[in-house]
UniProtKB/TrEMBL annotation:
Gene Ontology cellular component terms for the protein in this record: nucleus
SMART domains registered for this protein in UniProt: SET (SM00317)
Enzyme Commission number(s) of this protein: 2.1.1.354
EC main group: transferase
Gene3D superfamilies in UniProt: 1.10.220.160, 1.25.40.970, 6.10.140.2220, SET domain, Tetratricopeptide repeat domain
Organism annotation: Oryzias sinensis
Protein's name according to its UniProt entry: [histone H3]-lysine(4) N-trimethyltransferase
Pfam hit, one: SET
């Protein structure tokens, strides 16, 4: 029997399939619903900094005595996580340095373990059961899936068999393909206040929410709890819509990303009228207008550079090369594109990130301040991309003793976060504490 969530109802339509809509009014910043994770997994890179169960970032975490790899707030977090941690604990000891399943394989292992022990619906399945989540198979007629994706899935399946078969009954290859596909289409990346990756989770009820480039709600996380809040005033009958992707980019880029990852094209008003594309793709004004061919060549160059940078970023110890790549591409693009052009902004933001890693505060501010000038005009008013940028800038200013600029940036971040995260969120308490100490 289907459960329910107060103020919400599921619907089906021929164009979109299933979706969620509100049955009462909600105002900006109001919580529509919260959803605990069906299963979640902390990223390996966050181990030691965050609790493996609740993802709380804190000092002095207690280490698992057996594997020495998992960390917890206290004994109760450790005990609550044991059913999932036991899938990995002895394997990490046995495999040592060779223990290397992907984050997706780790999450799928936890889903399988939970399915085995769970009786009836859990709190994350009030409307939709985990097995009812959409998968690629539902879009098979639209898919010409690239080999790289297929290979990655096969590697993930092999990793699941290699690292988890001791504690799991591994289902058939066909069932695994469906489950990995459901996780690829419906998994959520849990990020911190600065949008750093913390882990991955699945939330069946949240997975019902369809995409729009003009979202009506935003999903944020309190530990591993997903919270859905309105970013527009909503009236009864309005559809609950989130953005599945980064909305900075122009319409064609957004839709190519949606087709690649989710197998559909968006038909929202923004995608139909492409109103913001002119600003997003702004070209320098010159006495002789720049030839269309020059613009199209530069756009191709920008997209290739972004792809190359992404590939290089996964290689360690090449920070100087990355910064050089950013600087060189910004110089090239600057001859044709305005600073507000999203490809220029993308590389400036990357350059800021590299400078932060290199502990070059002045460099990070130089790029970050330029990005901030345009982000608030290009993103919607309650975007986490904007709040996280102000947070980074604010914390750098504070560290440099530039308190007035720091307070200004942190206050801007808080104004967005109070709507997106809710006024009582731990992140906001932490920022208020940062401010009171200064």
């Amino acid at each position: 029997m289907t459960g329910s969530i107060d103020g919400l109802e599921m619907f089906s339509s021929p164009e979109k399939g299933r979706g969620l809509r509100v049955s009462r009014a909600f105002s900006v910043g109001e919580l529509l619903f919260s959803c605990p994770a069906y299963s979640s997994v902390l990223s390996v890179t966050e181990r030691g900094s965050c609790c493996d169960l609740c993802f709380r970032r804190k000092e002095g975490l207690a280490r698992c005595g057996k594997c020495k790899k998992a960390f917890y707030c206290n004994a109760s977090c450790q005990k609550a996580d044991w059913a999932m941690h036991r899938l990995e604990c002895s394997a990490m000891v046995a495999f040592g340095e060779n223990w290397c399943p992907s984050e997706t394989s780790r999450l799928v292992a936890r889903i399988l373990a939970k399915k085995k022990t769970q009786k009836g619906r859990c709190d994350s399945e009030k409307i939709l059961l985990i097995g009812e989540m959409q998968s690629r198979e539902s879009h098979m007629h639209l898919i010409d899936e690239d080999n790289e994706k297929k290979e990655r899935t096969e590697l993930d399946i092999a990793g699941l068999g290699r690292f988890f078969s001791k504690h799991l009954e591994v289902p058939s290859h066909k069932d695994l393909l469906t489950l990995f596909s459901q996780v690829a289409c419906n998994g959520f990346t849990i990020e911190d206040d600065e949008l750093s990756h913390m882990g991955t989770a699945v939330y069946p009820d949240v997975a019902l929410i369809n995409h729009s480039c003009q979202p009506s709600v935003i999903v944020t996380f309190n530990g591993t709890l997903a919270q859905v809040r309105a970013v527009q005033d909503m009236k009864p009958g309005d559809e609950v819509l989130i953005s599945y992707i980064d909305l900075l980019y122009p319409t064609d880029d957004r839709n190519s990303r949606l087709r690649e990852s989710y197998y559909f094209t968006c038909n929202c008003l923004e995608c139909q009228n492409k109103q913001k594309d002119k600003v997003k793709l702004k070209v320098r004004k010159q006495s002789d207008p720049i030839e269309p061919q020059v613009i199209s060549n530069m756009t191709r160059y920008a997209k290739n550079t972004i792809r190359e940078f992404r590939a290089m970023k996964s290689t360690k110890n090449i920070l100087f090369e990355l910064l050089e790549m950013c600087e060189q591409s910004l110089e090239e693009m600057g001859a044709v594109f305005e600073d507000s052009n999203v490809y220029v902004l993308h590389m400036m933001y990357q350059a800021m990130g590299v400078c932060i890693y290199m502990q070059d505060a002045d460099g990070a501010l130089r790029y970050g301040e330029k990005v901030a000038r345009h982000y608030s005009k290009l993103y919607h008013p309650y975007s986490l991309n904007v709040s996280s940028l102000y947070l980074k800038l604010g914390r750098i200013y504070m560290a440099l003793g530039r308190h007035s600029a720091g307070i200004n940036a942190l206050t801007k971040a808080m104004a967005i976060m109070e709507v997106a995260h809710g006024k009582d969120h731990q992140y906001l308490k932490d920022i208020r504490k940062e401010l009171s100490q200064k």
